[in-house]
Design goal:
Elements lengths: L4 E4 L2 E4 L3 H14 L3 E6 L1 H6 L4 H8 L3 E4 L2 H9 L10 H14 L3 E6 L2 H14 L4 E6 L5 H14 L3 E5 L4 H13 L3 E4 L3 H5 L8 H5 L3 H8 L1 H24 L9
Helix pairs in contact: 1-5, 3-8, 7-8, 11-12
């Protein structure tokens, strides 16, 4: 299973466990070779069909992993199994631990300024040997992106975490990853908010049964109920189609 890839919903996903992913990251740090991590869940599987920028940026990833348990279940249904869910927020925490253990530097990009400040304090307390080489909030325009990319490059960080929503984080990486000189590149979505204490993550039991999305809806029903209803319904439809007629691999648009 290690190192294999599975074609699911038109995307090649890496059939890897968390420990294997972290081993790959450790090797990339030693050689300072680029390893861009991407994750997909049900919502991204749905959205990449209409969002070519999101799709192209995911194709560019060096490792593409199943963040959603529904994607893992679907892979087993199709007999193209992925070994386990590898959630973006869990990779985030494991890489911070790696940075702490090896005294590596990290760059942070995303969230509101006050949330980013709280996150920096949490990292300093929990991972004191992980040096924050660069930090910038996620509210910037396209004109500022080039300057931010230059700042990240000049910081010589070992790991870049991007705490922005999709497809913004994927588009930033697809546009600037080649110029950053950072070995590990990981878009972590709303993980900055979770680690900073602004948002609660679902209890472990909810995570294990693939219901983390439902916990989010309970916390923010007005904002999220329609989003998850529509994307989950569409994902079920895509799963039914994939079971009968597997999609061919997407190519760059």
């Amino acid at each position: 299973m290690s190192g294999s890839r599975q074609l699911l919903f038109g995307m090649y996903l890496d059939a890897m466990r968390m420990d294997e992913v972290i081993d790959k990251c450790r090797a990339a740090l030693r050689t300072r070779s680029r390893l861009m991590l991407g994750v997909v869940n049900a919502a991204k599987i749905v959205n990449l069909r209409k969002d070519t920028q999101l799709r192209d940026s995911l194709i560019e990833c060096d490792l593409l992993l199943a963040d959603g348990q529904s994607v893992v279940w679907a892979s087993r249904l199709f007999r193209r199994p992925l070994p386990e869910r590898v959630a973006g927020i869990d990779i985030f925490q494991r890489l911070l631990r790696l940075a702490n253990d090896e005294e590596r530097s990290v760059a942070l990009l995303g969230a509101r300024p006050e949330i980013l400040s709280r996150l920096e304090k949490v990292i300093a307390e929990r991972f004191p040997k992980a040096r924050i080489a660069y930090s910038h909030h996620g509210y910037f325009g396209a004109a500022e992106a080039v300057e931010i990319a230059a700042g990240i490059r000049d910081s010589a960080a070992d790991i870049l975490f991007i705490g922005m929503t999709s497809p913004l984080k994927e588009i930033f990486l697809a546009t600037h990853a080649a110029s950053l000189g950072v070995p590990i590149l990981h878009g972590v979505g709303g993980s900055f908010d979770v680690m900073a204490g602004l948002t609660r993550r679902a209890p472990l039991g909810w995570q294990k049964v693939g219901m983390e999305w439902a916990y989010r809806v309970l916390l923010e029903p007005r904002r999220l109920w329609w989003r998850y209803l529509s994307t989950n319904t569409r994902f079920i439809q895509l799963t039914a189609v994939e079971a009968i007629r597997p999609a061919r691999a997407f190519r760059h648009s």
